Amino acid sequence: MARKSRKNPEPVAPATFQRHFYNAAAYIRLSVEDNHKKGDSVETQKSIIQDYLDANPELRLHDYYIDNGTTGTNFARPAFQKMLADAENGIINCVIVKDFSRFGRNMIDTGYYIEKYLPSLKVRFIAITDSFDSSDIKPGDAIILPLKGMINEAYALDIGRKIKAQQRQAMLDGEYIGGRPPYGYLKHPQNCHKLVVDPLTAPVVKQIFQWAYKRAGLNDITRRLNEAGILTPSFAKKAAGLITHENLMGNGKWQTFTVAKILSCETYTGDLVQGKSKGINRRQQRADASEWIIVRGTHEAIVSRELFEAVQILRKQAADEYIGKTKKPYTPNIYKGKIFCGYCGKAMHRQRGWKRKGEQIYVFHCLSNSRVARGSCKAYCIPEDELTAALLAIIQKQAYAVIGKSLILRKNQPATEARRSAAKADLAAVKRDADKYSRMLKSLYESLVSGVITADEYQEMRSDYENKVVDRMIRAKELENSQIELEKRMSEFFVMFDLAAKANSGGDVTAELVDKLIERIRVFADRHIEVDFRFNCGFEDFFENGLLNIKPEAVTV
Fold this sequence. Notes:
Layout: E1 22-30, H1 42-55, E2 59-68, H2 78-88, E3 94-97, H3 100-103, H4 107-120, E4 124-127, E5 132-133, H5 141-172, E6 185-188, E7 191-197, H6 202-213, H7 218-227, H8 233-239, H9 256-263, E8 272-274, E9 277-280, E10 283-286, E11 293-295, H10 305-324, E12 339-341, E13 348-354, E14 360-366, H11 368-372, E15 381-383, H12 384-411, H13 413-450, H14 455-504, H15 511-517, E16 518-523, E17 529-533, H16 539-544
Parallel strand pairs: 1-2, 1-3, 3-4, 12-16
Antiparallel strand pairs: 4-5, 6-7, 8-11, 9-10, 13-14, 14-15, 16-17
Helix pairs in contact: 4-5, 6-10, 7-9, 12-14, 13-14, 14-15
């Protein structure tokens, strides 16, 4: 889930009803250094939170949010971000942790979330063993919270420094520090910090260096590897059981950047070169070459130092020759990410050529034959100006229907306004129901405390009222989201319609037009072109889902 900024939350409108029960999120975090601490185990944290819930009947557990093996010094944690999203959507209104350190070890950000952000969402915060409850602030809490934050942050910094120092010393001692070994090597069965040659993949590395030494280019080497059916590094690691997640697999074809990475890796000479990156302000940045940790002769070499250096010289010569050429800037590629081969489905490459009079000409062609394997796709290309002319003709042909849809939407603005008013009335009614059941819940809890009803009656009636409140809250959110989606999509459609009308009246094919109107362009060897328009999907949903009380055929253009 992409992380959104929460440093400047929008002002929260006053709640239309009071909540007297709490849907609680139990947040649990266990970092790597906490794995050996019994008191901070996931099971222990769960047990402490569950005991607290049992003692407080107004708290109802919604779910556990668990980040296992994550640092508390930043908040880019999957479960934590999901918990905040649920708080923003009104699904939870209470956060419970074992103590402040489980929530976070960054003093400033932890204080911000507890003192500013969660209160802005009307979310209660409880740290059990620190005896902190935001709904019952005690006089000493104003001092305790920042003090605890300072202690937790200092602890995290100290642990971090120790781990980094330990890793750096291991690098200086010639030990390999890394999750997976480089392609061509395996980790020693008895020592995970020592590399041994992989008999299955090391010959491939040798062959790649031999081809490069004979001046084969990256494209040529990539194609040869694919034609030979050699497993890519990720697929080879999967076969060895070193990779299991499909997101790390790639498409199974060798790429030029993979070959380039292998050719620049000094590890294949038997030397360990580590510490090429360092953390600055919580981000990994490339370290200067003077900061690298190089230890010679730590493991068996796959290629000689002489061959490695010779290949580096040849690659630098080729790069310098390319850089030294006087180059005229490329014109913008308005079809980037939009144009694909109609046969193999791969993105088509834009290449520049020159006419006899020195004029630039651009063509699009499929790279499969040059990078995957000869004969893997049809060999053809299409000039960019020819593509543009054909595309403009297709857009103009479609513009008639598009403009008709625009007229339908614009003519029926009154119907849309009526729907807006009806949606607001429905939303108000749903919120009134939620408010009513919330008041009943409050009265119910007071009846339990005063002895008017039994605990069993309280549990049964509370469950019924809570379900009704939650149901109304979910319905209210659905109504709000539906209206927001309608407004957003209508705005997008009007932009597309106006662009299509402009193209229909003789306008040029521009980057904005391609971006807004076109989803995908497929090109075939006979210059046949197929276009997926963005306005061909979604418009009909307005009618099918009843978002507009009209029929598409109501207007004739």
